[in-house]
Amino acid sequence: MATGSAAIPVPLDRSNGSVSVDTHALLSAMLRAHDQVSDLIFSPGRLPAVEIHGQLSRVEASTAQPLTADDTRRIASDLIGGNKQAIATLRERGSCDLSYGLPGLARFRVNVFIQRGSCAIVMRVIPTKIPQLAALGLPLQLEEIVRLREGIVLVTGPRSSGKSSTLAALVDRINEERVCHILTVEDPIEFLHNHKTATIHQRELHSDTPSIPLALHAAQRQAPNVIFVSDVRDHPTMEMMLEAAETGHLVLSAWNAPDASKTLERILGLFPAAEHSSIRQRLGKTLRFLVSQRLMPRTGGGGRVVAAEVLKVNSQVRQCLEDNDFSSQRLLAVMKSGGREGMQHFDGEIEKLVRSGAISSETALLHAIDPEGLRQRLTRG
Q: Is there a domain that residue 359 lies in?
């Protein structure tokens, strides 16, 4: 990740020798650096930084000074406020997650953590407007997910790959088009959804429920049709998601994995080896889509563009699970043969982006699953 600088006036006043941090003014000033700020980062001994299109920029201004440990502690205190659970978690575990809002400007997913005895803070900017699938540049075949009545849909990818936006767009479309009950369990709540055609309830970890598995267990008595879980972290959560899908619910969630093969490997890794055979059978019956995505810089510095791999679970995928062979090579063959069903694979989509001029060949080779194979195809023209 490259590092540059951005001219942002920072409201830190040390004129009288004391430290004064106006957190609201500081956050507002940093957001004004660019209309595509994705993250704000505060670290003792460094100037505040913003991430824009994957590039980290430090704040540079004549009045700016590096943050002190007292600065970051005060900013963290302002963000946490009276959230006793977040305070307890920070003390016990050394980090805590929470949401924070600037009325009329933005919402943030916040992580406060202890490093070298002082506070550091990373804030992910959450757009106030829920994105639309088409505006995100996602494949049209994902519209099929909106019409599903049961099963599991996983959106995967590395950090900052747009998973939260994709899932928010899917939930919003279901909210618009279906008369149903949507229940979300999030850590923390990111996009705020209003009731539309559907009725939607959003529960936040710690403030509304002590754990995600307990929230999913309680959901059995709350009559949801669609359940959204912000991410899968452990065996109990995955087990409850499988049970929900098996009892007729549509379950949407995110997973930090680079592609479909790694996602399946990591799901199995949550369970004891003795259960792997039964888990593969259950996945074959409940899994509907694995959508893996990543964001890449556009040519000319015009933001980022998404490339998405779409694996739709059909008889071939179920056979892969039954055979305990879901290697990248085998799943790639399934996706290549499943084009008519709406499947697509990373390198194929990346090649299209190069040929359309959206990304450079250098960027494509950096992100490709098989860089040499892609290089050869691009060279042939």
A: no
> What's the domain range around 268?
140-344
Residue 221 has which token pair? 């008595």
* Per-position DSSP letters for 294-362, written without gaps between them: EEEEPGGG--EEEEEEEEE--HHHHHHHHTT---HHHHHHHHHHTGGGT-B-HHHHHHHHHHTTSS-HH
For the chain, how long is the longest CA-to-CA vector? 72
**Are 118 and 144 in the same domain?**
no
In whole angstroms, what is the distance from residue 144 CA to residue 76 CA?
Answer: 42
In a domain, 63, yes or no: yes
Question: What is the CATH number for 160?
Answer: 3.40.50.300
The set of residues, in sequence order, having a beta carbon less than 8 Å from that of 298 and lying 6+ positions away, is 304, 305, 358, 359
Q: Which helix (H) or strand (E) holds 31?
A: helix 23-31
pLDDT in tens, 62-120: 456 788 999 999 999 999 998 888 999 999 999 999 999 888 888 899 999 999 999 99
pLDDT digits (tens, 9 = 90+) for 9-35: 555 555 544 445 688 888 988 888 787
